[in-house]
Amino acid sequence: MKFELVSEAELNKMREATLQILNNIGIATTSDKFRSFLLDNGCKEKNGRIVFPQPVIDKALKTVPQEWTVTGRGGEHVVEMGKNKANAQVCIGMPSMMDLDTGERRDATLKDLEDFTRLADALDHINIAAPIFPKDVPQESLVTLETATLLRNSTKPFRLCLESHDEWPYVHEVLLAVAGSEKELKEKGLGYYEVSPLSPLDYGKGPAEALMDVVEAGLPLGMDPAPLMGATSPITIAGTVVQHMAELLVGVITSQLMDPGHHVIVSPRSGGLMEMQSGVALWAIPEMGLGGGLNIQLAKSFGLPAGCGCYTGASKVADAQSGYEHLYNALVPALIGIDVCGSAGSVDNALIGSYEMLVIDDELSSIVQWTIKGLNINDDTIALDVIEKVVNGDGNFLGEKHTRKHMRSGQEIWRPVICQRAPYETWETNGQMRLEEVAKNKAKEILATHQVEPLSKEVDAELNKIIDKAQKALENK
C-alpha cells in the first residue's frame, strides 16, 4: 500500500530547502561540549550559529540504520522500527487526567502513571508505553521516577523524554538495574530516549548534552522538537515541515558522527497550530494529520525511521469528535508509512490523559494496523472456483469450506473489541451504552484484574535507592 501527499518533484524541493537551512542558517546552542564536537567534526561557525556543510550531512546519513528493534524488559514485546508498522505509543507528558470515576479533569498523579502504564500493558494494540506527567512527586528527579514506574508497571518497550544531562546518570542506573548488565541493556534497549530541542533551530545545553549522553550509552535515540505553526515555525505546513526536518536532522547527524550506525528515530510533531483567535496550541485535524503525514514522507525520503503525533485532537473528552480526529490524524501518516503512532490516550490537544480514550485508541490502532498490512490477493482469496460452484449449484457461501477457513483464520475479517455491532434490540437490552461507557468499563475491568510480572524484590529495592539518591543530588541544583 502506498500513499503520498506530495509529488516526487515537490518532495525534492522540500529536501533541498531542508538542506539549505542546515548549510546556511544552522542552529544555535548554549552547550560548549556540543558546539566543540560539531566543529571538530567538519561543521562550521557562521554568525554565532553552527552550520552543516553538505559533505558532513552526506557522511552522516550514509550510516543511519533504516531498520532496528527495541525490546521490553521481559523479552516478549519487540517493536520493529523502519518497517512501517504504525506501532501505537501512549502520549507522553500529559499534566492532567480525566478522572475515571468522576469524569472531572484534575492534576495527574503517580498513581495515574502506574495505572495508565498498566492499562497500556494490557491493551494488545498499544505497543509502546510512555509516562504522563505526575505533579504530586518531586519534580527534580521526575524522569528517574518515571523510568522506574514504567519498568515496574509494563513489560513493553517505552518512550522517554530527557530534559537534561544532569538527571541522565540516575536514569541510566535505573535502566542498568533492570537490564542486569550493560550488554543486556544495549541489546534490548528497553525503550528509546528522546530529546526535544527548541524551535526554531535551537539546541539548548540540556537537550544537546542529553542527546550526547544517550549516544555514548549506546541506547536508541529519538528526536522530538515540537514547533507550533504561526508561533515557533512558519504558519504554512510546508514551511513548518522543512524547518522541523532540519531540526531533526541535526540530532541524526550528531548521533552518526559520534557513533556511525547508531539507532535513531525522528518523531516530528509538525501540524501543531497556534490558533490566532484564542492563542491555544492545537493538535487537531486536519493540520496535525497532514503535517505529520508530510513529515513522515520527507523523513522516509532521507531513509529515517519515523513517528509522529497521531492519536490527537482538540476535543476535551473521549467522544465522537475525539474518535474521528484521532483516526484521521493517525491514518494519514500510517498510509504513507510510519513506524510509531504517538499520543494515544490523550484529549484536549495532548494535555489531558483519558483512560477511556486509551481503550478507544487501542481499537483505532487495531484498525490502522489492520488497514496498512494490506490485502492478500491470490487465487484463493479471489475465489473464482467458489463463486462458480455456488452460482452453478444450489448451495450458498455460508456453507462453503472456503468461508469457514477464512473466518477462522482471522486474516480477512477485522474483529472489534469494544465497537458495538450487535442488532439494535441487543444493544437496547444491554443498557444502550455509548462507546465511551463501554471503554470506561473496559478500563476499570483491566485495572481491577491485570497484573504485570513484578521486578525482583532486590531490583525493586535498588530502584528506590536510585530514586532517593537522584532527588537528594538534584533538589538543590
Give an overview in words.
The chain is of the alpha/beta class and 477 residues long. Strand 18 (346-347) and strand 19 (352-354) form a beta hairpin. The termini are far apart. The radius of gyration is 23 Å and the shape is globular. The protein is 47% helix and 13% strand. The longest helix is centred in the middle third of the chain and has 22 residues, at 237-258. The strands form seven sheets. Strands 8-7-19-18 form a four-stranded mixed β-sheet. The model has no long low-confidence stretch (mean pLDDT 95).
Keywords:
477 residues, four-stranded mixed beta sheet, four-stranded parallel beta sheet, 19 strands, 47% helix
Q: Tell me the total number of β-strands.
A: 19
What is the helix fraction of residues, given as a range? 40-55%
Overall geometry comes to globular
Could you give a short account of the major beta sheet? 4 strands, mixed
List the helices and strands and how they pair.
Layout lengths: L7 H18 L2 E2 L2 H9 L3 E3 L2 E3 L2 H8 L6 E4 L6 E4 L5 E4 L5 E3 L6 E3 L2 H13 L19 H12 L4 E5 L5 H12 L2 H7 L2 E5 L6 E2 L1 H13 L3 E3 L13 H22 L5 E3 L6 E2 L6 E2 L4 H15 L5 E3 L10 H17 L3 E5 L1 E2 L4 E3 H18 L6 H4 L1 H9 L8 H9 L14 H6 L5 H15 L7 H18 L3
Parallel strand pairs: 1-11, 6-17, 7-19, 9-10, 10-12, 12-13, 16-17
Antiparallel strand pairs: 2-3, 4-5, 7-8, 14-15, 18-19
